[in-house]
């Protein structure tokens, strides 16, 4: 047997059909016993016993037990009792059972059953007066039948329909509130996920900055000091010491800049972490630092070059990392830096000659491949350069180029979009 329908659990409506059945049984019995009865809707069958109302009322009340659990069962059982009551002269019993038949069918039935019960109630208002008029003859009987039809058909139609509409609205509001609650939970989960992604991206950006800025300067300090120790030249020593101090101060300045950015409040004017330091105007200083480390550097940069700040900062970081790799993996070998703008693209290329012995059979520099563990890295530099170029929708490549009798060259190349002049609210200009 289906579980009770809890959809219409309203104040004043009994949860259990047993309570309703007992109430109708007691009420109907009292009304009949004290003599309160009404005219039958149709003349009863001849010879109907006077006690016939007892089994009819019991049958109807048994059907009412299922008024909430199974409305079709209630309609079938109680409907049978209503027909029997009409034929056996049930009087007031007929009215009570017919009233409850319409009320429970409209309120507790499925949408299809409810609509059918409403249609039957409306039809009863038309049919009952006609039946009464034809059965008893004359307009008075028809008018009295109309009054009875209003009481047992229209009142339950209005009452049950009103309660059901209110219940439907309450259910819709409950479902809407549940939907809003679920949407709020999903929004909160999405916001938390976005926060995690943002934190991870910020950590990755911080790691790149620390690697490119601090590690780059410290690598320059180590390589320059090693070159000075190997040369044994007092003049070179002083120049190297001066450059070491410059690199150290610059590293501290960039670290301070990063700390300030991390401590600053977010806002529409917040400076991106990638633009904390570095630009095209500092490429000459990078070249000078590499020269002091022992690598001849030729910087070929287009004069009057104007690029957005973020593009300039990315160019600086790529050149810085490429020079650090050149000094580390190809000490003393010449390096050529070329920076040009063409077709709204900043073309950056860094070439450094490699010793013949540093190129194994598979075409990968020996130092980069791990032949010299003292000079090899973990590959994060190339990865960071590629990520920086990709962040600007640019391209990046690195590998062996122009292998010949004079030795191979390691080529690092990046193409960074600079956009049209209208898209450059923040720019750097090099004279």
TrEMBL record:
Protein's UniProt keywords contain Transmembrane helix: yes
Alphabetized, the UniProt keywords read: ATP-binding, Coiled coil, Kinase, Membrane, Nucleotide-binding, Phosphoprotein, Transferase, Transmembrane, Transmembrane helix, Two-component regulatory system
Which residue spans adopt a coiled-coil conformation according to this UniProt entry?
A: 160-196
Q: Which GO terms describe its cellular component?
A: membrane
Tell me the organism: Arthrobacter gengyunqii
Reaction it catalyzes: ATP + protein L-histidine = ADP + protein N-phospho-L-histidine
GO molecular function per UniProt = ATP binding; phosphorelay sensor kinase activity; protein dimerization activity
What protein name is recorded for this chain?
Answer: histidine kinase
Which is a Pfam family this sequence falls into? HisKA_3
Q: Which InterPro entries match?
A: HATPase_C_sf (IPR036890), Sensor_HK_TwoCompSys (IPR050482), Sig_transdc_His_kin_sub3_dim/P (IPR011712)
